[in-house]
Amino acid sequence: MPKRHLKISAGFSIIEILIAVFLITIGLGGVMSLNNYSLQSQGINKNELVASQLAQEGLELVKNGRDAAWIPGFSGLGNLSNGRYIIDYRGSTTPVSGIDDAKTILKINDDGFYNHETGTSTQFRRMIMIYGDGMATTATSTIRFTRFGTNYFYEAVMILYNWGVGFRN
């Protein structure tokens, strides 16, 4: 009688399948974690870009006020003493105690302009610190925003020299 050989199936065992599923799960978990980190970083980078522009705007407002002080009959921001202020594009200035002061919250109005008075509150706060000795004034524009419970700060600094020292009465 001829010998019969049993044919053995060349499939995967349950242990091999479990190991493959485990490795795929670990790989997908890493990809998902990287994707989540990328999205968080993108949001923070976007806010840092907005913060840098808001800080630069604050310095430009101080510089415009200094320049406007040269117009006869207009004092502008040129007469601000050392201290902390909020300043917006309308030229209004208000002293504040610090970046945590409720007045420092920036709002965005229907026209898309940031200000401290009207509109929808944003996550951004802006404070301008001015200090100097008469020959030069240093202005620091500080922006703070919060993302996922963490405070982020952006500062821009500018030194303004007093053009009028020795030239005007």
Structure description:
With 169 residues, this protein is an alpha+beta fold. The chain has one domain (14-161). Helix content is 33%, strand content 30%. It is built from one helix and seven strands. It has one helix spanning 14-68; strands at 83-87, 93-95, 105-108, 114-115, 120-132, 136-147, 150-161. Strands 1, 2, 3, 4, 5, 6 and 7 form a seven-stranded antiparallel beta sheet that branches. A hairpin with a 5-residue loop joins strand 1 and strand 2 (93-95). The longest helix is centred in the first third of the chain and has 55 residues, at 14-68. It starts with 13 loop residues before the first helix and ends in an 8-residue tail after the last strand.
In short:
By secondary structure, the protein is of the alpha+beta class. It is 33% helix and 30% strand.
Write the layout of secondary structure elements.
Elements: H1 14-68, E1 83-87, E2 93-95, E3 105-108, E4 114-115, E5 120-132, E6 136-147, E7 150-161
Antiparallel strand pairs: 1-2, 1-5, 3-4, 3-5, 5-6, 6-7
Strand count, sense and barrel status of the largest sheet are: 7 strands, antiparallel
Q: What is the percentage of strand-forming residues?
A: 25-35%
Would you tell me the overall average pLDDT? 83
Taken from the alpha-carbon principal axes, the silhouette is: rod-shaped
Element order: H for helix, E for strand: HEEEEEEE
Oligomeric state = single chain
Fraction of residues in helices?
25-40%
Number of domains: 1
Global structural class: alpha+beta
Measured distance between first and last alpha carbons = 128 Å
CA radius of gyration: 30 Å
* Number of distinct beta strands: 7
The number of distinct helices, counting runs of at least 4 residues, comes to 1
